[in-house]
């Protein structure tokens, strides 16, 4: 009853936080493997064969342990639980303010998603940096507060916001493209499909397709972001792009 009586923006925040918790716990191993794959170039020898996702999975389990696949889940929780909540509440507020009486078109959906993600991304950036470092395996932080303190004392406050440009170049387009594809895919489906008992499966399928399309577009920015945030030398976005290209 208390949730039903809450402000819609607050309900969006709470539901977003719950979904962030579930998705973080479920997909953290894939996130860790993605980070390891993106940072392999740091130690790879010229002409060395490419390492695939499955080999990284096995390597982590053999050299560390099975639960090491969830390394970085603490900063992921700290980042995603409020971060997804901020995203959904901001998205709802923007939609209500600008599109109260109509559904946004494709271009407007991109701006909505990008705007909400920009706000959430900036707010949670320090925890995004810590999450990336936990997953990389290059740092031995004992806890999230310890990582914050260590980075601040040894590298300065700038390190907590490293990769801001690359992060926004990934997050804002990703969310904008995702919202556009998701909303347009649902709009293209017949009414009887979206209101049928298997509507949740339809929504899930639309979300998967939208996520794949958005990931393909923003993957280069994601790689650049990872390299910047793992490096303690405070690369610029241009420096990271040149390093990866070479």
Distance between the termini: 58 Å
The number of distinct helices, counting runs of at least 4 residues, comes to 10
User: Helical proportion?
Assistant: over 70%
Beta percentage is under 5%
Task: Supply the helix-strand structural class.
Answer: mainly alpha
Pattern of helices and strands = HHHHHHHHHH
The low-pLDDT segments are: none
Compute the CA-based radius of gyration.
19 Å
Mean pLDDT: 83
Give the overall shape: globular
The major β-sheet equals: none
Give the tally of β-strands: 0
Description:
With 246 residues, the protein is mainly α. Helix content is 76%, strand content 0%. Helix 2 packs across helix 4 (73-98), helix 7 packs antiparallel against helix 9 (199-230) and helix 9 (199-230) packs across helix 10. The relative contact order is 0.11. It is found in: Membrane.
Helix-strand blueprint:
Blueprint lengths: L1 H4 L2 H32 L13 H11 L9 H26 L7 H31 L7 H12 L8 H25 L2 H4 L4 H32 L6 H9 L1
Helix pairs in contact: 2-4, 4-5, 5-7, 7-9, 9-10
